[in-house]
Amino acid sequence: MRQALEGSQAIAQAVSRCRPEVVAAYPITPQTHIVENISKLVADGVLDTELVSVESEFSAASVILGAAAAGARAYTASSSQGILLMAEVLFNISGLRIPVVMTCANRAVSAPLSIWNDHADSMAVRDCGWIQLHCLDNQEAVDSTVQAFKIAQDTELPVMVCMDGFVLTHTLEVVDMPEQDLIDRFLPPFKFQRALDPKRPITQGALVSPDFFGEIRHSHHAAMQKSAAVIESVDADWAALTGRRCGGLLTVEGPADAETGVLALGSMCGTLLEAMETLPMDRPVKLIKLRCFRPFPEAALREATAGLRDLIVLDRAVTPGLGGTVGTEVKGTLYGTDPGPRIHTYAVGLGGRDIPLDILPDLVATLDKPVAPFGVFDADLEKLAPEDR
Amino acid sequence: MTDTSNATRLAELRLKHGRPPASPAEPSAPPRDKDLRKSQPRFRGLEAGHRACQGCGEALATRLVMESAGPDVMIANATGCLEVFTTPWPESAWRVPWIHSLFENAAAVAAGMESAMKAKGHRTKVLAFGGDGGTYDIGFQSLSGMLERYHNVLYVCYDNEAYMNTGIQRSSSTPHAASTTTSPSGKARMGKRHLKKDLLSIIAAHHIPYAASASVAYPTDIRRKVRHAMETEGPTFIVIHSPCPLGWGHDGSVTIEVARKAVQCGLFPLVELERGEVCNVMPIRQPQPVSEYLKLQSRFRHLFNDKDPRALEERQHLQALADHNITLFNLRGDQADPMDTAGMDTVRRGGPVH
Q: What's the mean per-residue pLDDT of chain B?
């Protein structure tokens, strides 16, 4: 049913219809409305779940770990500092290969303190071994949330659904909320082969010596790589059921013969798409919308960038001393492709800085010059003391 | 709680566990109608063959807890010796579902497991195990959260009074003046400068249904307390004093003796609390001098240097702490009691001793 819903409200309803048995969360801006809405659904008797109002994000992640390990479908949501406080548990959840789902309402990481959107939080935990999906709008966030529970169950890997804080979480949009019976058809009840059960006692989380550790890490990596096919097939199944796709691993929009590409993730893609449609461009540009950041879709990226002369990669986070996380990974992936595109890497929209439509022509205008080193594209250095520039 | 209701609850508890009255004014318990030993469980949740050191107090305490807890349990175990010596992959000493996640989240993981059980309508009891590091220190927050949210979890802390797994570093549970690798004794220092954290009082402030301290020297007492906690709906907590021969510096053959002396001198009082109120204590028949306990362990060796005036002073400090416990919990028994420190020891030895 099509409804005008705030992003967080839509996520809460979607989560509720996925019938989680345990939800644990700790409030943090801009994730708060998700937890509040879930709490209200529980209070109103709409959602029958064990809602655990924990004392920290660290415990939120730990509670869903325990719940899923004991065989329950479990969900949490967090953001920014909360994601970082969870970091140790996030690695642990994926290392134990426990299928849970988390919404990351992307927000900048302190200091300086900022409650507004960028991707510093999810990028900081890129190595934690979770599947990471980024959403363009609230419809994608809803659909990806439902898909995430299916992907987690099928791959026995945890899934993080990233949606831009405020830009999506606090924005009212018309969303086609999937009906309960449709979700029930798509998402079978939670089953976990390795669930703790007194009838069949198993030990989880043992101490592993150097004799086995490398093999176990390898199997985690292999499982992540194999999950790419599952992510694509789940999206296809969802499309067959609803007519809506979220964009599998990545999608390419715009003229096929364009020699200029822009790669971005999250709500930035919505801005760029609109710019492509509405602004006059002096050359054709295609958008590569990276939906799945982990596993990193290397083959799909090589295919999507074939024939490009220039590729602009937009990050919404900075790895200080190196550049943008996505930018460096794209460079790594395309290394050795011949002829590969010239790769321009920038960070934009940090700490909630608005990304205007005309950022696209501004970016394209830089292509006539030699490739510039990484920089924060929309930073106004005049605001800084000369020694800080 | 008023004095009257407290006395009533105390009497109820004593009757329930076959404890004779502490004073003639209280009603006496009915006679025992069966041999205690015949009711000993046989279930071994923790199997032999694990890699604990000889004389490990924690390994013994865990076996006793598991015997009493039975098979219908699942365990969240904090990082520590217990986790390491029982599960060197691909081996495991556990015959029950068991999960180790991290150092500081055993209580939160247990809370999640319990929530799952509740969601599924299962009655399997969830236990959380941690050492003193994982309980008094790094896992303290998640423990407090679990107790406050009233999860039906039995948390057992195996207290060996330092970070033994990483090589004997001081914890907030390390007793005053004990020498560890991060609170070594030396010219300028007499071991740990601070006091042992009074965790049980903090647990008491959560007003949970049941909390207790126990000692590996008193197995029947551990069993009784674990059974009581298992029967109790809601969060329960038991801290078990578990000597570490390596960390405390005593022979593996005297673990029980060391643990018993800790109780008998008053430094580790065995108490039970209901809703945060002390409802029972194990009386000490004849309080031993603290030095009898200290001198068995090399972590207190520096307190027996007659040439150092600080040694006597610190021994007196520790004696004062023990005396304070004896007064606070009224540990000095009025008369010989089969359930006091000497009587319970008789049970442990399987017959009367003279």
A: 91
